[in-house]
């Protein structure tokens, strides 16, 4: 059975659907450092501001912040490898990925929840 699975993976004909294969392929390429920094930049973009923004402008700003944070995280990870500093082994990679994804989901959910509750009170603060 194991040989059949290996042959199916090598030929690209697994029983998984195309969406599952695409999701696994894309998630395998994301870096944990970029995910965490991107999420922190996204959360920072949702902090209260006295400058009123329409929804589309806020969405574009948040997306740009997420992309900038992810790019900075990837750059830092590349620099870490370039300087030949020790990297964690591949043995714990799935566990570190799960922790990073859960942490990012919690941070993003809290940031979105806080931004929705403070957006209605900001006009009152401005008078």
From TrEMBL:
The chain crosses the membrane at residues 26-44, 56-79, 99-116. Keywords: Hydrolase, Membrane, Transmembrane, Transmembrane helix. Pfam families: Abhydrolase_9_N. Residues 46-116 form the Alpha/beta-hydrolase N-terminal domain. InterPro entries: Alpha/beta-hydrolase_N_dom. One of its GO terms (molecular function) is hydrolase activity. The keyword Transmembrane helix applies. It comes from the Bacteria. This is Alpha/beta hydrolase family protein. It comes from Halomonas ventosae.
């Amino acid at each position: 059975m194991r040989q059949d699975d290996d042959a199916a993976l090598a030929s690209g004909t697994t029983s998984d659907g195309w969406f599952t294969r695409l999701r696994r392929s894309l998630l395998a390429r994301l870096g944990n450092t970029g995910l965490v920094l991107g999420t922190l930049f996204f959360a920072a973009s949702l902090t209260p501001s006295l400058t009123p923004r329409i929804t589309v402008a806020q969405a574009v700003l948040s997306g740009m912040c997420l992309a900038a944070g992810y790019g900075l995280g990837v750059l830092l990870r590349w620099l870490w490898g370039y300087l030949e500093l020790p990297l964690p082994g591949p043995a714990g990679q799935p566990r570190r990925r799960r922790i990073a994804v859960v942490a990012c989901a919690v941070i993003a959910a809290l940031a979105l929840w806080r931004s929705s509750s403070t957006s209605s009170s900001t006009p009152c603060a401005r008078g």
